[in-house]
């Protein structure tokens, strides 16, 4: 699951009043595959946000795809699917991030574990965009989120390390890893063990009761800018006014 704090923050920042379309600077979303292997990016809009680019596409190694961002408030997530191959019945089955065997996810989310870029576009009174990196659902591919030509607080946020190389044994997902070797992804503690405490459910579903675990501490030590558990600090999202481009780079 994505961080409730991040999702709540992004949702509450969406405008309660309409921004005039003419007031919004055109924005481009760019997805870059800097990996040594192909990926199949997936895109899922939040409730009420439309599907972009059919929800997914193929992206060869060392290539990119740019497309216009919506000219109105939009929020959602972008992730990489890896180790994909056609299967019987014309489906596309992926070792990580699979979205029901589809090439175009069509609004479906990806199977965990997967590293997420989470964004909220065109909100607030100054055409702000917020973004963050989440490993709450675990990790499959390193990524960075970079805004270009924006005003205000516009840092690059990233989880760049390949955590499949350092993932604790009890969190490892073993499959045909795209870069070679046997570890294709790294589960979160919640995904691996499913307890209310690790998943911040039930009596643990509050900032006071949901605390870091040794598993989220592992992710935080490797990727300090990322959200690592459900009630991780919301200060890790940043706001950038009127960026002309938001770039999500995998293996960067």
UniProtKB/TrEMBL annotation:
<dbReference type="Pfam" id="PF00314">
    <property type="entry name" value="Thaumatin"/>
</dbReference>
<protein>
    <recommendedName>
        <fullName>Osmotin-like protein</fullName>
    </recommendedName>
</protein>
<feature type="disulfide bond">
    <location>
        <begin position="35"/>
        <end position="251"/>
    </location>
</feature>
<feature type="disulfide bond">
    <location>
        <begin position="190"/>
        <end position="199"/>
    </location>
</feature>
<keyword id="KW-0732">Signal</keyword>
<dbReference type="GO" id="GO:0006952">
    <property type="term" value="P:defense response"/>
</dbReference>
<feature type="disulfide bond">
    <location>
        <begin position="167"/>
        <end position="186"/>
    </location>
</feature>
<feature type="disulfide bond">
    <location>
        <begin position="159"/>
        <end position="223"/>
    </location>
</feature>
<feature type="signal peptide">
    <location>
        <begin position="1"/>
        <end position="18"/>
    </location>
</feature>
<keyword id="KW-1015">Disulfide bond</keyword>
<feature type="disulfide bond">
    <location>
        <begin position="99"/>
        <end position="105"/>
    </location>
</feature>
<feature type="disulfide bond">
    <location>
        <begin position="84"/>
        <end position="94"/>
    </location>
</feature>
<dbReference type="InterPro" id="IPR037176">
    <property type="entry name" value="Osmotin/thaumatin-like_sf"/>
</dbReference>
<feature type="disulfide bond">
    <location>
        <begin position="154"/>
        <end position="240"/>
    </location>
</feature>
<dbReference type="InterPro" id="IPR001938">
    <property type="entry name" value="Thaumatin"/>
</dbReference>
<feature type="disulfide bond">
    <location>
        <begin position="200"/>
        <end position="210"/>
    </location>
</feature>
<keyword id="KW-0611">Plant defense</keyword>
């Amino acid at each position: 699951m994505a961080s409730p704090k991040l999702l709540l923050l992004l949702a509450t920042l969406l405008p309660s009043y309409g921004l005039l379309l003419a007031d919004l600077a055109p924005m481009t979303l760019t997805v870059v595959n800097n990996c040594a292997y192909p990926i199949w990016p997936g895109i899922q809009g939040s409730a009420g946000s439309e599907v972009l680019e059919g929800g997914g596409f193929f992206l060869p190694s060392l290539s990119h795809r740019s497309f216009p961002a919506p000219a109105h408030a939009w929020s959602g997530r972008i992730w990489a699917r890896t180790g994909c191959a056609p299967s019987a019945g014309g489906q596309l089955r992926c070792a990580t991030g699979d979205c029901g065997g589809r090439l175009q996810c069509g609004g479906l989310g990806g199977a965990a574990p997967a590293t997420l870029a989470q964004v909220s576009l065109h909100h607030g009174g100054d055409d702000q965009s917020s973004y963050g990196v989440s490993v709450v659902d675990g990790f499959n591919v390193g990524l960075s989120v970079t805004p270009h030509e924006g005003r205000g607080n516009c840092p690059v946020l990233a989880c760049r390390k390949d955590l499949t190389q350092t993932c604790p044994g009890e969190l490892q997902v073993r499959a045909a890893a795209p870069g070679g070797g046997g570890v294709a992804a790294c589960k979160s503690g919640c995904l691996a063990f499913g307890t209310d405490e690790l998943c911040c459910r039930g009596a643990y579903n509050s900032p006071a009761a949901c605390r870091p675990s040794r598993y989220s501490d592992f992710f935080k030590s490797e990727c300090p800018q990322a959200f690592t558990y459900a009630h991780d600090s919301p200060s890790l999202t940043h706001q950038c006014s009127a960026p002309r481009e938001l770039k999500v780079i995998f293996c960067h």
